[in-house]
């Protein structure tokens, strides 16, 4: 009897019928970013630049770009203290972005220097290893999978959450992502750990925007696909293209400048979005 009663329509049971839930909608893509002069933007925010993953590749070139005009904290767990010795504007420090205490020490150093932060660039990444990237599901290794999420997802949100109190009004957090992290754009599969950790990173970028915007903090959060760039990390996959003179392959210097120009041109309507190096919005 009880079961039969539950199966009756709401009106027959003397209950009001609740309204149907609103239909699910697919949010539209973000407007494109018109690039601007990164050094002019930096003058307006007047804080230091922090680059995590600055030991090589894109992170190194971002540090060198901003180091031409002001203070940069270039950090990595493997960075050599003498790497930027030719530029006194660039301060090097060994920081493991997956370690809370290590990042806290960086925050303390910046505070002791009396600095605020104009932009945080999260460039530390794990793609290659003895167990990855994986070609199929059988190749998934737990340790490599967990390390990928620790470096590619937790590392950026760890630096963000700890440096957030130091970020200047109008500042930015840039998470170096990858187009392969797009669920909507994935038609090939593979690279399980790398893809899924970058998907997580893109969502963390969105979550960071939602929370800080709710609190009234004027900070821009961007996930950026750098395009295929020739770096020590990518060389196992790009070496032949590089040797063949493939003009579609970016140099690290080109990509660093492109990303810095995106930061300068981004506005409130771009925060939380996923973009490629040219400023075009990408689907999550």
Automatic annotation (TrEMBL):
GO cellular component terms given for this protein: cytoplasm
GO MF, any single term: oxidoreductase activity
Record Pfam families: adh_short (PF00106)
Listed SUPFAM superfamilies: NAD(P)-binding Rossmann-fold domains
Cross-referenced PANTHER family: NAD(P)-BINDING ROSSMANN-FOLD SUPERFAMILY PROTEIN, SHORT-CHAIN DEHYDROGENASE/REDUCTASE
Name by which UniProt lists this protein: Uncharacterized protein
């Amino acid at each position: 009897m009880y079961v039969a009663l539950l199966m009756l329509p709401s009106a027959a049971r003397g209950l009001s019928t609740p309204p149907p839930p609103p239909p699910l909608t697919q949010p539209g893509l973000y407007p494109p970013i018109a690039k601007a002069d990164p050094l002019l933007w930096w003058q307006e925010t007047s804080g230091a630049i922090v680059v995590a993953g600055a030991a090589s590749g894109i992170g190194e070139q971002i540090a060198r770009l901003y180091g031409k005009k002001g203070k940069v904290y270039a950090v990595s767990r493997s960075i050599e203290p003498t790497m930027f010795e030719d530029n006194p504007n660039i301060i090097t420090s060994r920081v493991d972005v997956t370690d809370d205490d290590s990042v806290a020490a960086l925050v303390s150093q910046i505070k002791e220097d009396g600095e605020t932060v104009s932009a945080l660039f999260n460039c530390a990444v794990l793609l290659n290893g003895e167990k990855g990237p994986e070609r199929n599901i059988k190749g998934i290794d737990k340790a490599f999978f967990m390390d990928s999420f620790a470096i590619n997802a937790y590392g950026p949100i760890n630096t963000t959450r700890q440096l957030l109190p130091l970020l200047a009004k109008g500042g930015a957090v840039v998470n170096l992502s990858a187009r392969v992290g797009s669920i909507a754009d994935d038609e090939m599969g593979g690279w399980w750990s790398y893809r899924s950790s970058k998907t997580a990173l893109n969502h963390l970028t969105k979550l960071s925007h939602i929370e800080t915007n709710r609190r009234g903090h004027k900070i821009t959060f961007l996930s950026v696909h750098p395009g295929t760039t020739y770096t020590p990390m990518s060389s196992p996959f790009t070496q032949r293209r590089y040797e063949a003179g493939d003009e579609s392959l970016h140099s690290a210097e080109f990509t660093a400048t492109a990303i810095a120009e995106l930061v300068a041109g981004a506005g409130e309507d771009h925060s939380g979005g996923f973009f490629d190096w040219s400023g075009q919005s990408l689907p999550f």
